[in-house]
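Example record for the data management plan.
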Amino acid sequence: MSYATDAEFCRMSGVSRNVVQQYTKDDRDAFVKTASDIADGYMGAQHVTPLTTPLPANRTDLKLVVCHIAGYLLLSDYGFNPESPGDPIVVQNYDRALVWLEKVSKGEIALGQVDSTSDLVEGAPTVSSYKLRGW
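Corresponding structural encoding:
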């Protein structure tokens, strides 16, 4: 499950629009999916992942964190240019995203009411008998 759309990624990744547009939507979706999986790895310490219930609309921090990680992954694939003024910012955003996820994993940042439980009813059927059978 991806926690950000392609449009959100293009808007929030921090990567130059010229660089982002050199990748197909499927490529960008793969970076967002990988970033979402990384986020799940951290959030799994406090929540059942993937999160099946979306966060409240006013909580965009997870989307931003996933977009920053995906932007870093895309830039790593494209090639880091220390001469570009935006590339060091993408790296800084990535580092901050990991710090945020680490705090979520330790319970220092709460995601709010997140219900990741399945509707599946688990357990075996109940078996009963009225007479003891001598075992």
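Summary line stored alongside the record: The chain is about 50% helix and 0% strand.
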